[in-house]
Write a structure and sequence with these properties.
The structure is a single chain. The longest helix is centred in the first third of the chain and has 28 residues, at about 35-65. The protein has helices at about 5-30, 35-65, 80-100, 115-135, 140-165, 170-195, 215-240, 245-250; strands at about 65-70, 75, 80, 195-200, 205-210, 210. A hairpin with a 2-residue loop joins strand 2 (about 75) and strand 3 (about 80). By secondary structure, the chain is mostly helical. It has a domain at about 5-100 and about 110-115 and about 170-240. Helix 5 packs parallel to helix 7. Helices cover about 70% and strands about 5% of the residues. Strands 1-4 form a two-stranded antiparallel ribbon.
Length: about 260
């Protein structure tokens, strides 16, 4: 049976409208992040998202962790449909535009204690290690793959700025959770429609209102990547004077940056 919406139509109904609305609000709202600095940060995140997610996503599709309903995709590149690659771009934009509405910053030097960097790196590595252990069992394979894939990124982000992220944790948490809950709902609807199907063999069987916990974990960690990445990027630019190479590049740039 063909699902009522194709994957592309899912984007048109559930992903593009909030992006357009949030982008319009961020551009018009006084005090919101907009312009060259936050958008360049988003651009970097988009490139990293596509490069880092593509092999992981295709591997899981090839294994059979999930597949797509009959007639729901336009075409496939490698093992993933083109709509999946589009999602790699659209989800970070959606989350970033929400973040832009609640600028998240604090006055803190880049020179955070080495012990904080160690704890941050160790935390990310520990998450990856748990993932490595979980992929050994079919029922925890998908969850393990998510944690193993997430660990290195979290280790890098937390090693660089765990102290800063803790300082701005309240707004950062809101910026993560609101888009995540929305995407949980959209994902649950898509699964219910049969746009994509999650394997019972490679999942634990635990759900949140019908949404596999693995899918919930995926959207949570990916939004953590996006929010933390942009927040740390903006922090780096704000404290550019502490890094001579960055400060020099800004001084030579024909574009005026507000780094105060």
């Amino acid at each position: 049976m063909t699902p009522p919406l194709s994957y592309l139509e899912f984007h048109a109904v559930f992903v593009l409208p909030p992006i357009l609305l949030l982008g319009w609000l961020a551009r018009r709202r006084s005090g919101a992040w907009w312009g060259r600095r936050p958008l360049s940060g988003l651009g970097i995140i988009l490139v990293l998202a596509v490069v880092y997610t593509t092999p992981w996503d295709n591997l899981l599709i090839d294994v059979g962790v999930w597949w797509y309903g009959e007639g729901t995709v336009v075409a496939t590149i490698w093992h993933a449909p083109v709509e999946e690659y589009l999602f790699f771009v659209l989800q970070p934009i959606l989350t970033a535009f929400f973040l832009f509405l609640i600028p998240t910053s604090a006055d803190l030097s880049l020179r955070i204690p080495a012990s904080h960097r160690f704890v941050g790196a160790a935390g990310g590595i520990a998450i990856g290690a748990v993932g490595w252990l979980l992929i050994g069992s079919p029922s925890t394979f998908y969850l393990g793959a998510i944690l193993l894939w997430a660990g290195p990124i979290l280790a890098i982000q937390w090693a660089f700025g765990l102290t800063y992220l803790w300082r701005v944790r309240r707004r950062a948490t809101i910026a993560i959770l609101v888009p995540t809950v929305y995407l949980w709902i959209a994902d649950r609807i898509a699964i219910g429609m049969g746009i994509w199907v999650i394997s019972g063999e490679y999942t634990t069987g635990y759900t949140m209102f019908g949404l596999p916990i693995e899918e919930a974990a995926f959207f949570l960690v990916t939004n953590v990547f996006v929010v933390q990445g942009i927040v740390l990027y903006m922090w780096l630019l704000d404290r550019a004077a502490e890094v001579p190479a960055i400060a020099g590049a800004i001084e030579r740039s024909p574009v005026t940056f507000d780094v105060g």
